[in-house]
Amino acid sequence: MVSLMAILMMVLGALVGQTLGVIAGNSMQEVHGQPQHGLSFSTNGWADTFFSNPYWLYGMGIALVIWGIQSIVAYFAGGDIMLAVSGASEIDSKTHPVLFNIVEEMSIAAGLATPPRIFIIPSEVPNAFATGTRPDKSAVAVTAGLLGRLNRDELQGVIAHEISHIINRDVMFMTMVGIMLGTIILISQVFLRSLWFSGSGRYSNKRENNAGAIVIMVLAILLAIIAPILAQLIYFSASRKREYLADASAVRLTRYPAGLANALEKISISSGKMEQANKVTAPMYINDPMNKKMALSGLTSTHPPIAKRIEILRKLSGDIGYQGYESAYSSVNHGHCIPQASLADSEAMSARNADVTTAAVISAAAAARKTGDTIMAMNKYAFINCSCGLKLKLPPEFKKPKAKCPKCGKVHDIRR
Question: What is the pTM of this model?
Fold first, then answer.
């Protein structure tokens, strides 16, 4: 995937560089009143014409520079940028102790020396993502809606999926491919706009030996139109494959396939469009936050069909390791998912039983209350459990020393 994207980016850069270089050269000749001599174009064909000038090398170099600059920014600040765009807020163990405990459990199971930082997104839509180009500088973000709807086993499955993205270096991989996609789109847009404003007629003159130059210009225009589409399809395909691999790795961490399967079912039922997400950040989530319908047999989707992911997880029995997941995947998608190196090192694993302390069902009303309480906790609300069963929720601007329960009238001392 990375090789295909890199080749596409370099070829586009070469063609665009050659075309714009010739246009600029012809423009300089016109300014100085010099006759246009076709800039050493050969009459032997477009290939000789292409290599007769060094502009294609400049174009490839500029493409690499653009990609390099964006990669540096993404490597050092990409995670923080995504968290900021998503409106996520970092929390401590007091805000949601169960979430903290699960993240620590899955970090130990995954062999992470440093657990990822934990963030909550103030959205009622259940979803989650992981970010960070290095395991020791990673983060996991979940929505308040996810915390409100899932029980402990299900939440553990989602966290295991996101931590799997970290240990599998999916964040780094998708960042690299995503930056290449952005570079291709940027080069294409700049090139097409420059042709519109500069006038493509300067590329060729009345000399008959410019047929090769015209061919190069046409190829550059066509590739500038097609390349962003092809690059997006490659990007989407890579994203879908990594989701399956993260599911397989999550099962190994939790040893409970039903937890992730149940979580995905709840996410699919409750999913809606997240205001905090966009086309750039969408592939990083566990489920498409844009809530787009599948098109072109799923080629334009950032995620595999969630029904297939659930079906594969439900088929796991006996061996739930990579070999078992590969067999279940092949029976559903008739292909391969797990890298051969991982299959060779895979050991058979058996599933554990469900957590007996986990609530089996969370009602819609209870989910809504939990979601609201999570968002309030993020906003520094104070909670007081009254003996009458009512929970008092005091905003951070409440400065009085005492609070009276509206149900039973009991007065509580407020200690901040």
Answer: 0.79
